[in-house]
Amino acid sequence: MFSISLGELATKLNGKLEGDKDKIIHQLQDSQKCDSDSVCYIKSHLYIQKLSSSPGAVITTADLAKEIDANCIIVEDPYFCFALATGIFNVGYEKLNKSIESDIHPSVKLGYNSVINPNCKIGANVVIHDNVSIYPNTTVGDNCIIHSGVVIGSDGFGFAPKNNQWQKIYHLGGVDIGDSVEIGANSAIDRGVLGNTQLEDGVKLDNHVHVAHNVRLGANTAVAAQTAFAGSVNVGANCQIAGHVGVTGHLSIVDGVTVLANTLVTKSINKPGVYSGIMPMMEHNESLKFVAKLKKKSE
Asked: Which top-rank group of organisms is this from (predicted)?
């Protein structure tokens, strides 16, 4: 198990420690789930109310630390330092993955040039077609079909800006895929940053679907081609998402929602039903005026 003292971690992050420098930390966790052996980060007052009851340490600013009853590493930019911390903890993440042999059911059919990395569990009667790549820390349930060119468990798209450059956020989670899931050709399911990306039982993905880090797709939801879910989207059960739909990050969609083709979902959907949002292309300023007129007419 990876371990680092708070004193050493603070030094690596170029931060000031307020607390026990000898305390040993084993994991980097989400602030809502952070336990006494882990460290998390808080970048605004909004997250303090949801902070777990006994975090091992918190990476935060001097002002926010005044409201937190825990060991704190004081930094100017908590999000950037969180990105740095993922690189530190990634050393242990990769070492752990390499040490765990994958559990592959004897009935699995593995296509040509497909790769299952260490620390994976593949259930019974799974068909994996040619040229599939399954990264470590992935679980696939029974009776699944994974078509050619699929990538499961790759890094999500995460970078923290600093001085006109980008600091990579290493993804320390995994992917959980339920039973009877089918994933179309050349689709990509990214692993979670902290915690896992989830495809529940019966999910069906068409070709060229992108599922970003920490997305949850509820049971029996079907998604057509060229649809993309940004990070941390939560989609309910029995939804139908048509082709070329975009869903922006951190939104929720309740059970029983249908989204028609070419729709851009920019806010959570809290009521079951059929939704669409198709507009012709125009200059952006004209588009804003058009939307304003539509809203005015509907009032």
From this structure: Bacteria
Asked about 213 being catalytic, the answer comes back as yes
φ, ψ for residue 258 (rounded to 5)? -115, 130
Which residue has tokens 């079907």? 222
Distance CA 183, CA 128 (A): 10
pLDDT value at residue 280: 63
Alpha-carbon gap, residue 152 to 183, rounded angstroms: 10
pLDDT tens, position by position, 214-267? 999 999 999 999 999 999 999 999 999 999 999 999 999 999 999 999 999 999
Q: How many Å apart are CA 218 and CA 236, to the nearest integer?
A: 4
CATH topology of domain 102-275: UDP N-Acetylglucosamine Acyltransferase; domain 1 (2.160.10)
Q: CATH says 4-98 is which class?
A: alpha beta
Q: How many angstroms separate the CA atoms of 217 and 210, rounded? A: 12
Alpha-helical runs (H) found in the chain: 6-12, 45-48, 62-65, 78-99, 284-298
Q: List residues bridging with 257 in a β-sheet.
A: 273
What confidence score (pLDDT) does residue 128 get?
98
Q: Which residue in 129, 147, 171, 213 is the catalytic one?
A: 213
Residue 45: strand pairing partners: none
Handedness of CA 94, 97, 99, 104 (dihedral sign): negative
What would the pLDDT profile of 23-56 be if each residue is shown by its tens digit? 999 999 999 999 999 999 999 988 898 999 999 9
Domain residue ranges in the chain: 4-98, 102-275
